[in-house]
Amino acid sequence: MTDKLSAERPWPRNAWYVACTSAELAEKPLGRTICGERMVFYRGHEGQVAALEDFCPHRGAPLSLGFLRDGHLVCGYHGLAMACTGHAESMPGQRVRNFPPIAAFPVIERYGFIWVWPGDRAAADPAKLHHLPWAESDGWAYGGGLFHIACDYRLMIDNLMDLTHETYVHASSIGQREIDEAPVSTRVEGEEVVTSRTMPAVSAPPFWRMALRCAGLPEDEPVDRWQICRFSLPSHVMIEVGVALQGQGGHDADPAVKASSIVVDFITPETEHSHWYFWGMARQFAVDDPAVTDAIREGQGRIFSEDLAMLEEQQRNLLLRPDRRLLKLNIDAGGVRSRMMIERAIAGERGHETVAAQ
Amino acid sequence: MTDKLSAERPWPRNAWYVACTSAELAEKPLGRTICGERMVFYRGHEGQVAALEDFCPHRGAPLSLGFLRDGHLVCGYHGLAMACTGHAESMPGQRVRNFPPIAAFPVIERYGFIWVWPGDRAAADPAKLHHLPWAESDGWAYGGGLFHIACDYRLMIDNLMDLTHETYVHASSIGQREIDEAPVSTRVEGEEVVTSRTMPAVSAPPFWRMALRCAGLPEDEPVDRWQICRFSLPSHVMIEVGVALQGQGGHDADPAVKASSIVVDFITPETEHSHWYFWGMARQFAVDDPAVTDAIREGQGRIFSEDLAMLEEQQRNLLLRPDRRLLKLNIDAGGVRSRMMIERAIAGERGHETVAAQ
Amino acid sequence: MTDKLSAERPWPRNAWYVACTSAELAEKPLGRTICGERMVFYRGHEGQVAALEDFCPHRGAPLSLGFLRDGHLVCGYHGLAMACTGHAESMPGQRVRNFPPIAAFPVIERYGFIWVWPGDRAAADPAKLHHLPWAESDGWAYGGGLFHIACDYRLMIDNLMDLTHETYVHASSIGQREIDEAPVSTRVEGEEVVTSRTMPAVSAPPFWRMALRCAGLPEDEPVDRWQICRFSLPSHVMIEVGVALQGQGGHDADPAVKASSIVVDFITPETEHSHWYFWGMARQFAVDDPAVTDAIREGQGRIFSEDLAMLEEQQRNLLLRPDRRLLKLNIDAGGVRSRMMIERAIAGERGHETVAAQ
Prior knowledge:
Chain A is an alpha+beta fold. Helix content of chain A is 23%, strand content 31%.
């Protein structure tokens, strides 16, 4: 199959990507392009999630315009019913046994997300799905959202692996002068790129004042603040962030004197120049208060939307000047190393393909 | 003349296409691209319809932005007046005798439509215009509309030559289970591709209940239903549809016990990936009641708009996967044979061009 | 630097173009593409205007999304501060000495406009900036506006150097039959192309009736009307227009018996197929009455917006038929000669580049 969308692939294919949230998959099928493939997601037998090519083998209609019947996805054009294996199941008045199958993508529902493996089916290993301990614990609460952003997903990884930009892009919420004054440290820990920064004895910016209030802590006292960004393949960035009352140990302080959370970022390529950005926050304070979840989601959504214009315009600039070299400063090391990890993964897949083709 | 729009032509050029309705051509010229040619349609001397290239030979302004004066089309930029032959007629302060002519397209006004012949002028034969007996008879009433659809006109022909899709796309109006359960028969009758289906002893779907009411017939009794789709070159599909009270002879039943009509479809290519869809219904019941015409037009417009998303998304899918082979099932035979007839017509024109070029 | 936008340049680069008005440049930087270059304009030290490439040398973000601090333009992404020379000035925690500079464009603020020189910095000569005597005199008033138009800037020059179109495009305001009946005279005067037309003893069209009223003159008497269009490089068109009471000398009549003004047109290329159109009117009547300025601006804006559809559709037609030759009539001589002057300027620059490259 040649496919215009996936002709060039600046992403690893053999990996679990977040395709949608569980809540997005209700009674109707959902069409979404992931890693250059038009896919349709739906709940089949007993609510089991399935993902197929969004292309009816009969006449090419998108299956996502169809409907579900007895656990099968039925094309809304002429009624071809598909099994979740990608094989035609039935069609009124037709023998479908010899219909060509379409691609079925391995898919897992876990942690409130639907994860898809766009690459080789045989290589899809559930054990490789990113583990989210907070999503399995009653001691945490989570809220989040989804943005469609018209830029290369790697620009978003750069963005999240260098939080210096908070001082500028998010000046009124989480940015503060001390961020870009604090030195950043970048290292590889196992299969993660980690870039971290600590800001001792600072005044909490507005977002963290809110969090301190929620945690029942004073918001006007000096705090030690930290940011630990963790990139892992294919394109997940988990950022441990928080503030502790000054001198209590910062990141390692007793939970009673700190407000902390994990900024959760799943960055799923759509096409070469666009991606789906699943963002959210997992927190350990006020976990039973849905009003706090809503307030944080609202605030976080507002903050992340500030990045949109910058990223999309940066993308336009880069497309207009493809030959221009960008700088790689120390603050960019997190993004640079993450991209190297991505490149290695892609090269590894290519090597594997070469071997397989011989 | 090289012309980007008409560089590739997946349609016959030497044929009469519906360009617009008579009602669309009032006092102002109308610009419309037909078969890849930007054309301007207008009423010249004594209301006679004319069609020219929509390109002023002076500076390339679209003549459709101009106006009519004394039966000539005057360019709205600098006042060049064109004759309906494509020759410049006059221009203030200029001798226009040596101005290069632009293309003039043969055009006929008949049956309430303006028909244009985009191909060789010399070959334009009024006798080849599709005959519409119902349009000349007082025993019929007609109402219709126009959609612009962003897909290859042949996808619309496929759509109309296989009404199986009614069960799925139009489930709430004319679709019913029995359609895709009834076998379809496809044959070539002279210069027509005919595909037909009969559904004996079914319950009438909502649209036909309405028609039965209009015809003064009971709407809750079982009926024999039929659909006879007739394709003819270049891209017309006339569909005889109706229901008769059960056991009275179906399509051939006495007019007093049936409600029937002709779904009229003129499918005019605009570009390779878009077309003008003139749809309507000619009926033999309640012919003097304009309220019925309006109700049918409203219902038919709603039904056909259900096809739009499906066809445009099907087109997007096909463009993304140009190498994918589609299936040709028995239900697709109507479309497949119609396309073969189109291909032969195009090949015939190419052969003729080759001869002419030697 | 290779740059997709400026790969083909149908405009002289070594010239002063109007980039924006002084009023457009307040506290925030302004991003605007001029002659294929994405530029950012801002007021630096002591309000001095500067223009840089709109491309942060760090990661390619548009500097126009940034802000001003102490006279430096600060990137809104990671805080790199740029000097107006195009050199990096400072960045928190970084040594910027070796950062690659970006292009800085020569810029002058004069006559209420910001003028930019997109070409060779060394060749930028303030003396070459178009002189506008009326802008320095208390005897004149000026008002104007800005349109973004999706067509080649040269189509606008054609438009303005042949006012025959007023009869057709602006029939209800400044157009009148006598315009295209009056012979046009075109000549080159020094570095200007001049095309002029006089219409003796005509009735004033609506716009000029308004001007006559403003000037305290009778609006219903016959007038002598004139239009003198002056093109100068790179793309300025100044049009002396006016009416005088009949037989008083026309253009040379005593100011007491005439209403006259200069239609001011700065036509700045954005890309090959779009431009910025700075239009306005400088007048010698009612100079102290801002209500007249507003009324003229409103009327002129309405008139010029009538040209938009025509020019943009003309552009579409020309792009679809690139091989079609246009006519060059006597009325087109102004545009034709202006284009020749532009071609010579471009050829001169190319010759210069060839020499410089040896």
